[in-house]
Amino acid sequence: MTKHGLNKIPLLMWIIGTLVIAASFYIETNIPLETEGLYWTVSIILVALFSYFGGLFGGLIFFMILSGIYLVMGLISTPNELSTDNSFTQVIGLFISLSLGTLGSRIRTNEMQLNKLFKNNDISFWTWDIETDDHTYSEGYAAIYGVSIGTFRDNPDLWLEVVHPEDKQIILNALEQQKSGKKTTITYRFFHSNGEIRWMQDRATPYMDKKGVVTRVDGVIFDITEQVKAEQKMNQLIHYDSLTGLTNRNWFQNYLDTALITAKKYSRSLAVMFIDFDNFKRINDTLGHSAGDQLLIQIAGRLKSILRESDVVSRQSGDEFLVLVEGRNSDEIEDLAKEIILKMNSPYKINGTEIISTPSIGVSINLDWEDDAEALIKKADFAMYLAKENGKNNFHFYNDELNQKMKRQMILETYLHKAIENNELSVHYQPQFDIATFRITGAEVLLRWECGMGKIPPDEFIPIAEETGLIIPIGEWVLRQACRDIKRFKENGLDSFPISVNISTRQLMTPNFIDRVQTILSDEQVDSKLLTLEITESAFLYYEDAKDNILALRNLGVGVSLDDFGIGYSSLSMIRNIEIDELKIDRSFLNDSLINNRVRSLLEAIIQIGKKINTKVVIEGIETKEQIEMLSTHNLFGQGYYYSKPIPIDEFEVWCKNAYKKAKSF
Ligand code: C2E
Ligand code: CA
Ligand code: CA
Questions:
Q1: CATH for the 240-398 domain, from 1.20.1560.10, 3.40.250.10, 3.40.630.180, 3.30.70.270
Q2: Residue owning the nearest CA to atom 4 of ligand 1
Q3: Closest residue by CA, ligand 1 atom 42
């Protein structure tokens, strides 16, 4: 404490006590004080002092050395010269001095520890005498504020003056509470002498006299700045997106959960917008990630400028943003969605280049009050996919029809998890032909699934399998099934031709994909030349990741076919970058060729490209004789209902045998 040296008292008392005890001990005993008795009195004090500094062990050693010196110098009698009375007295004396010494040593260490605590520069004790209004502090107090003790003595109110103005009220309230006898714990900011804003925690306990009047308050203050900073940093990491500075998904979800409770209580409408930018991936891939990052920062800024202060915008992940708007009706929300689309459609300037990135927006409103944050976000996400399906740069509200669709998807997802285990999967085969000669040149394996909900078309369950990752085990199941069937065809005497298996991009990108293909081929003892894998050009979006696997497949001798060719934007880049064995031209070309000359010219051009690069060209979806006639001028391959629908393996085998006969007579 700075006002008095109270903490020095125990040490002082120990010294006086030791002197008194030592002296009285020898006065009481009958050793003559002038000679030996004096030496013993001095030794007892010295031994006590030694054990005070060196503990019990130190004291003992010192005693032995001292006695040795006395004996050698003949200052005291040797033990056998001593009377039993005297040696007994001396042993007691030694015992007392050692005890006193070690006790003192204890007091000393305690004191040193306490002193350390008092001088600590992030913790300090204070006392406030209410009657005299005097404040007493422990030594470290001034250090917390970065000033000298003297400064505090000159200005005892300094601690209050340096409190952050916004937090002053917290202290004034606490003082009132303390005066009325309540304990308080408060946290506030203050200005350190170096100008830095730091954080303090102050815990106070008031004491009352017998009449119940508060006379004194004791407290302890902690400088908790480092702890607060660490918490803030954690908070930043947990709740904010480091790129855009917007709150992140976690934060949004927590906030939305609370907002939903309030909205329900006051019957207020609340809408979540899920915004995805349509061509962000391509911008990232073509202009680089740092350009992509800059774009996201600008998008975040633009979104904030469109929204009201009270609306919340958050970054979900990648190019997906979430917006929460409260208290607006559906017309107003629609207007807002339109405004976002309009403003987001003007170009962004990145490194001097103008870029356009259009948004697709899904909106969900808390119509039935049962949805939690996760459900509402999921609905908005779902509606966003519809906005994309409807041609992108668009918005879509979540509605009842979507609700049904989403529920069905969720049920299918649970069923799909068990599909392999329950033996619900099977494959159909659809033959491929040389259009000119009618000879079978291959067949495509098409997956079928029949579960408790009936037959589910692949266009419905494949996306669910892709989204959930189930496509990996399912895709592997198809691959193995196809290889077994290749062996079976051979055993049953069918002409050997390659079988094509559809591979989803997610499957192609798994790191051990090539190993898996190789293992299955060798397990089933199938020649790799009899296997073709159909990949779609979405693989090209991940070209860098997929490229090695595509090359490795070709090195294995497995054929690679580019499915649905011509409908995506990167079809040509794909064949420019990798050698491909086969192009499968999307059936939309054929469908439109007979009615639209432009499409027909395009189809012819694509066929020419395929031939120029020495790639087999397969036309999908041949349904009519006219189509065959239109195509038979070219050296082409075809597949479609005109020849055969995809059929189960038994039927397919019979079909093939009949087809050979037909081909021979052709
Ligand atoms: P895809 O790879 O383009 O397969 C061709 C689809 O067109 C098949 O639909 C087939 O039944 C249909 N088709 C064939 N000929 C004609 C025709 O003349 N007219 C018409 N309108 N359609 C015809 P399916 O079997 O419903 O499969 C749909 C899609 O599901 C496939 O499109 C493929 O992308 C995917 N898929 C099917 N099986 C698998 C699989 O094992 N793995 C993966 N990843 N995807 C698969
Ligand atoms: Ca296919
Ligand atoms: Ca296709």
A1: 3.30.70.270
A2: 446
A3: 502
